[in-house]
Amino acid sequence: MSVPAVTRPSSSVATRHNVVITGRPDGPPIVFAHGFGCDQDMWRGVVPAFTDDHRVVLFDHIGAGSSDSSAWDPVRHAGFDGYAADILAICEELDLQEVTLVAHSVSTMMAAIAAIAQPGRFRQLVLVAPSPWYLADPADGYDGGFTPEDLADLLESLDSNYFAWSESLAPVIMGTPDQPELGDQLTASFCRADPDIARRLMRTAFTTDFRPLLPQVGVPTVVLQCRDDAMAPLSVGDHVADRIPDATLVRLEAIGHCPHVSAPAETAAVIRAHLLGTP
């Protein structure tokens, strides 16, 4: 099998987000949006499953990876709307239509916002380990997995020493104690991110309730839920799939919060099955 060509568009939007395109130039587009503290490199185990027949688009959120951190705007990026607008700007710049948008963790709610804003641009969303709200809401029968005290401690630790926080939390997020090298990989990714931008992004993620957005998503959606996910209990995946009108829930065998890293073959196989309409 030949190695697909890799291109790096030179427009301002593409440069800001370190956009990388690979795969079949005339294939249907599939865009991968990474989660908190990560960058596009975290998709490297999944991408080869799509390069033969898809136009694969990778990018870094502002403040992550090799993006241009100077493009971070305190108003635009104060909430997830700005990050969703960044995703839409990339799609518009590359003239992407009928997009399959695969998003992980915090990017799942950015993807939901983007799809609500421009539903005609997207063929499908794939939400990997989503969480629209991290606290409990007994009145709604919802449990996001964290107590207010948990979140207060986590945010205090995040603010006091981002790098120490990254080193301690990354293995917990990865959730694969039998593969400590994966936790080390996530720690290294956290440490490549701009710490000030990362802190603000995480605070927004943990203090914003995105549940009201879910019924507004009018794009077919696949929700991938892992076992033993420290960031998103199984009931959260159920909630997301129940509230999005046209959603399918898939429970993976993978454990932890990053199945595209810990179980890339399973993750890619499930995504491909739904792309081909044969789940």
Molecular structure report:
With 279 residues, the protein is of the alpha/beta class. It has a single domain, classed as Rossmann fold, CATH 3.40.50.1820. Helix content is 39%, strand content 16%. It has ten helices and nine strands. The strands form two sheets. Strands 1-3-2-4-5-8-9 form a seven-stranded mixed β-sheet, sandwiched between helices. Strand 6 (136-137) and strand 7 form a beta hairpin. It is globular and about 50 Å long. The mean pLDDT is 92.
Helix amount: 25-40%
Strand residue content: 15-25%
Sheet/helix structural class: alpha/beta
Q: What is the number of independent domains?
A: 1
Any idea what the CATH architecture is? Answer: 3-Layer(aba) Sandwich
Rg, Cα atoms, Å = 17 Å
Organism: Goekera deserti
Keywords: Hydrolase
GO molecular function: hydrolase activity
Domain AB hydrolase-1: 28-142
How would you concisely characterize the structure shown here?
Pfam families: Abhydrolase_1 (PF00561). By secondary structure, the chain is an alpha/beta fold. The chain has helices at residues 12-16, 80-93, 106-117, 148-160, 162-174, 180-192, 195-207, 234-243, 259-262, 264-275, and strands at residues 20-23, 29-33, 55-58, 99-104, 122-128, 136-137, 142-143, 221-227, 247-255.
